[in-house]
């Protein structure tokens, strides 16, 4: 009887040893699979935007890219599409007198700025949809409130018609002029992720912490992966 018990113990010990030896192999296989970067970040509008707002002169058959634009930042310096070349850019549309979602969006964007503050390949553009009120002086004060430095996190204002066309036709998000009345402005809460080539790679709710966490994760994947 004792012999059978000892034999069973040896078999059990052998199985435990096999399992222990297999652990490094399993870890290696997992890391190898992870290292192949199978996480898929979509490329939006590869066959055009199909003109969703019925007012945009855009292609409906080829890859959509953010169009050229130049606005003025909080320091009174020009900034726009040329500064996006070769960088990953996170963009939102807002206005400083917004009574609803903008304060939350700006707080969340501040988190994004903190995450990539020391990463020169990532920048942020916050574009005002009320450029008549949001002068560089107003934007400068707003930028300082959120610890933003120009060249890293730029707050932009420009021609109103160009701004709304850029929102609807360039970033493919809704925007409606409030004619100076804060409660009447309409804009998206989305943060838009744009890659080094000017392609849109994702939309994330700027009022949802989990969505913003996902934005930061996918920005890192674009930075360090093969996307």
Care to describe what's here?
By secondary structure, the protein is α/β, with parallel strands linked by helices. It folds into two domains: 1-36; 70-224, Glutaredoxin, CATH 3.40.30.10. The protein has six helices and nine strands. The protein has helices spanning 2-35, 81-84, 102-115, 136-145, 160-170, 209-224; strands at residues 70-72, 78-80, 88-94, 122-128, 153-156, 175-176, 186-187, 190-194, 200-205. A five-stranded mixed beta sheet has the order 5-4-3-8-9. Helix 4 (136-145) links the parallel strand 4 (122-128) and strand 5. It is globular and about 45 Å long. 32% of the residues are buried. The model is unreliable at 20-32 (pLDDT under 50). This is Protein SCO1/2.
